[in-house]
Design goal:
Blueprint: E1 2-4, E2 13-14, H1 26-32, H2 56-69, H3 82-85, E3 91-93, H4 107-119, H5 124-129, E4 130-137, H6 142-152, E5 177-185, E6 190-204, E7 207-220, H7 229-240, H8 243-251, E8 260-263, E9 280-281, E10 284-287, E11 302-303, E12 306-311, E13 316-322, E14 364-367, E15 370-373, E16 376-383, E17 387-396, E18 402-417, E19 429-431, H9 432-436, E20 454-463, E21 469-490, E22 497-513, E23 516-525, E24 530-538, E25 543-544, E26 554-558, E27 561-564, E28 566-576, E29 587-596, E30 609-616, E31 633-642, E32 648-655, H10 669-672, E33 680-684, H11 707-710, E34 722-732, E35 742-753, E36 770-774, E37 780-784
Parallel strand pairs: 2-20
Antiparallel strand pairs: 1-20, 3-6, 4-5, 5-6, 6-7, 8-10, 9-12, 10-11, 12-13, 14-15, 15-16, 16-17, 17-18, 18-19, 18-28, 20-21, 21-22, 22-23, 23-24, 24-35, 25-27, 26-27, 28-34, 29-30, 29-31, 31-32, 32-35, 33-34, 36-37
Helix pairs in contact: 1-4
């Protein structure tokens, strides 16, 4: 993942970055595909390494270096040209100077990892059969992150390291970065996990070259990895070329196969027939009305009654049956959503331009993947499975310095179960992260700007199915937003008032999984809040009806067309570090419920209520559900840090609207998603516990793998290194207003400071420098004071 510039457009202004080196493209991937395990990426040379014993003057120089390393908006550290930096021969550069330990893998590093694994294949047949599902950074231990942030990278905070006698010993380099690869062997139907060490980066006049070394490899039995876009495309072609399918479509009046859409869905696990010994998909079929319209809404004509099962390993149809002739729904005149094709064919003419203007530029600063905005700082990451990852979240609190809040924040899974018991809808229970990948399905925002104002974009690099490097340009959007009133008070006696406007920094990405779009957002506020938000939009997954038929399990959208009821569940994983340095284990979780005081001498007026706290001591005790009737929330506290009143400092998790699964407890999809049975889980941190349904939920026959199994250890979470898993969902009963494309639905939660500060951290926000001029027509316009 890399930072990239973007040209200004009418809807957004992107921060320029003329100093970024060229990004590696497919050529680098092709070079890495050979038996060689060295490639030459365009890496900039690093600044000089730190000295073993820094003197006071050196510390001052290091502090001043922070300013140059974190310039406004998007500048990179100033470096000399490669030829100027290289001495005679090859100079070995410290990796710490080129990549922070938490930076996503570059395109060059991905190429090296792929080439290294390929070269390790026992035979040419094995190497040719390798398909690369995922190549990601193997995130280092937290003490390595602390070391990097102390001496090698912003925020340059030596206090992150433990005190030692005689002062700290400053290392000359960090451990090498490592890549973790999930590889599917198409020939043997085996899945393996590899770890590759990216051992060195050498500087030379013509760039540099990486070396990779296999650290470990292991075949994981009885699993299927996520599907890939290449497989989906091949599946569609296979089904459309299958003669019995073509005959079935002719029975429905369709002979032009270019009109047909085949969406491959993972089969889930409903019986032994779905066991992972075969790589399977059960496609959903749709049919467009017009072949010459690139934005034709093909989801408006579902094809039902055809059963297809595809062997995705060998890419052949292994089961086919035309079970029931359900007529195609008639072409809906309201099916399309492009300009000029909406209701009545006439778009609104009274919408005037709305522009976001920041005459002095944005308030955030970016260096590589390190972001500073007012008092917040954090790192941006990205994975093919989770998409956006936020690392090392901290708040700079005056004399108390940089105070950590969380080590890692991300959305790790989502499940969409449907409520219609009829074929094929009962099989719709997609695990969009674990079966597909939220990050791999992310949008390039070059194709449609979803943000306004001054924008900093980050590219995302990942491997494609055959091991080449793919880049999603402008994948992550970072920008500021006005957010209404931050605080206000007017003295009614004097008439004097103070008001401040709220501003937030937003990091986001948007992905498309078949018919639905999901936007994932992390908002940082001036009052210390962090908001996690998901925006749901896109096109409903529809079903066809017989003439005169209706179903109680959905909403009739148009003649012959209905939308089944369904739920969307999301899981946020939050590796908390409230006032904790990396690796410290000083956090605990308390549950807070509002209680009504019983009538009696302590409540003679019958008005009393209070907040009651319960310390959650073990993992099984911490399996909790939301309760809006008691204003239930949870607080993560540091057991060794207090505020000015002597209370432990903390951050509280405040639920938004939420729900639990409405399916019966024996529903098949709950075998793989037992984590949906509770809204909150708290676990003791374990490096390998990343995904609530286990690493491979696709066709998983094992019941309760993941969170539900981990918590059976019942590990202590009192004064520990803890992880919050928050499960939140929405029940969608479709409306006609959701057609043809659904207006955004919002869902999420909040992390709020609770005794973390000694007073409101927002009181020092300056007043606005703009005033209102009242025009003759009564419309107010901003003018600068």
């Amino acid at each position: 993942m890399a930072a990239t510039p973007e040209k200004a457009t009418p809807c957004c202004i992107a921060a320029a970055d003329s100093s970024s080196p060229p990004l590696p493209r497919r050529a680098a991937a092709a070079a890495a595909a050979s038996a060689e395990v060295e490639v030459q990426p365009p890496l900039p040379p690093p600044p000089p390494p730190p000295q073993p014993q820094p003197q006071p003057q050196q510390q001052q120089n290091r502090a001043s270096a922070v300013t140059s390393l974190v310039p406004e908006v998007d500048s990179q550290p100033k470096t000399t040209t490669p030829s100027a930096a290289v001495t005679k021969g090859i100079q070995v550069m410290m990796r710490a100077q080129t990549h922070h330990p938490l930076d996503p893998l570059s395109g060059a590093e991905i190429s090296v990892a792929v080439a290294t694994v390929r070269a390790a294949g026992a035979t040419p047949e094995v190497r040719d059969s390798m398909r690369f599902i995922e190549v990601v950074l193997l995130e280092p231990e937290k003490h390595v992150v602390a070391l990097a942030d102390a001496y090698f990278f912003p925020p340059f905070q030596p206090s992150l390291l433990p005190r030692t006698k005689g002062g700290p010993v400053i290392p000359t380099k960090l451990p090498p970065r490592r890549a973790r690869l999930v590889v599917y062997n198409k020939k043997s139907n085996e899945t393996s996990v590899w770890v590759v060490e990216l051992t060195e980066v050498h500087a030379a006049t013509r760039g540099g070259h990486h070396r990779g070394k296999v650290i470990s490899s292991q075949v994981v039995p009885d699993v299927q990895p996520p599907m890939d876009a290449v497989e989906y495309a091949e599946c569609e072609a296979t089904v459309k070329d299958f003669p019995p399918f073509m005959e079935a479509m002719k029975r429905r009046g369709i002979e032009d196969m270019d009109l047909v859409m085949v969406d491959a869905w993972c089969v889930g696990y409903h019986s032994n027939a779905d066991a992972p010994s075969r790589r399977l998909a059960k496609p959903l079929i749709f049919c467009r009305t017009e072949s010459d319209c690139p934005m034709e809404n093909g989801y408006a004509r579902p094809v039902e009654g055809i059963h297809v099962l595809v062997d995705m390993q060998n890419m052949v149809v292994i089961e086919f049956e035309d079970r029931k002739l359900v007529p195609l729904p008639p072409a809906d005149p309201l099916r399309n959503y492009t300009p000029g094709e909406t209701r009545g064919g006439v778009d609104r003419s009274d919408v005037k331009p709305l522009q976001i203007i920041q005459p002095e530029g944005p308030s955030f600063r970016v260096s590589g993947h390190f972001v500073e905005w007012q008092k917040w700082n954090f790192r941006i990451g990205f994975t093919p499975r989770e998409g956006l990852v936020i690392y090392s979240v901290a708040y700079v609190d005056g004399s108390r310095g940089r105070r950590p809040v969380a080590h890692r924040l991300s959305f790790v899974e989502m499940v969409v179960p449907y409520g219609d018991p009829n074929e094929p809808h009962y099989r719709k229970n997609a695990f969009d992260a674990g079966e597909d990948g939220l990050g791999k399905n992310a949008h390039s925002l070059k194709k449609g700007c979803d943000c306004l104002g001054y924008i900093k974009y980050f590219d995302a690099h990942f491997t494609n199915f055959t091991g080449g490097v793919e880049t999603i340009e402008n994948c992550v959007c970072l920008h500021e937003e006005d957010h209404g009133i931050l605080w206000k008070h007017q003295d009614w006696r004097t008439g004097l008032a103070e008001v401040r406007r709220s501003r937030r920094l937003t990091a986001s990405f948007i992905c498309t999984v078949a018919n639905y779009e999901y936007g994932f957002f992390w908002h940082f506020y001036q009052d210390g809040k962090i908001e996690a938000e998901v925006k749901l939009t896109g096109i409903l997954s529809l079903g066809a009806l017989q003439p005169g038929e209706s179903r109680k399990y959905g909403t009739t959208i148009a003649p012959g067309l209905y939308a089944p009821v369904h739920q969307h569940f999301f899981v946020a994983r939050m590796d908390m570090a409230v006032d904790c340095k990396p690796g410290e284990a000083h956090n605990q979780v308390v549950e807070v419920n509002v209680k009504v005081e019983e009538a009696g001498k302590n409540n003679v007026h019958n008005n009393a209520f209070y907040a009651e706290e319960e310390l959650l001591k073990t993992e099984t005790q911490a399996m909790r559900d939301c309760n809006p009737l008691t204003a239930r929330h949870w607080i993560v506290r540091n057991t060794r840090t207090v505020n000015r009143t002597g209370q432990l400092t903390g951050y509280k998790l405040v639920p938004g609207s939420n729900c639990l699964p409405l399916a019966g407890s024996e529903a098949k999809f709950l075998r793989r998603s037992a984590f949906l049975k509770h809204n909150l889980w708290v676990t003791q941190y374990s490096r390998n516990e990343m995904y609530p349904g286990g690493e491979f939920p696709n066709q998983n026959p094992r019941v309760g793998e993941g969170l539900a199994t981990w918590v059976k250890q019942n590990r202590p979470i009192e004064e520990n290194n803890i992880v919050l898993w928050y499960v939140f969902g929405i029940t969608h009963i479709p409306r006609l207003e959701d057609w043809p494309v659904m207006p955004v639905e919002h869902i999420g939660f909040m992390l709020m400071p609770h005794g973390f500060f000694n007073c409101s951290p927002a009181v020092d926000v300056p007043p606005s420098t703009y005033d209102l001029d009242i025009k003759e027509n009564g419309v107010a316009k901003l003018s600068k004071l």
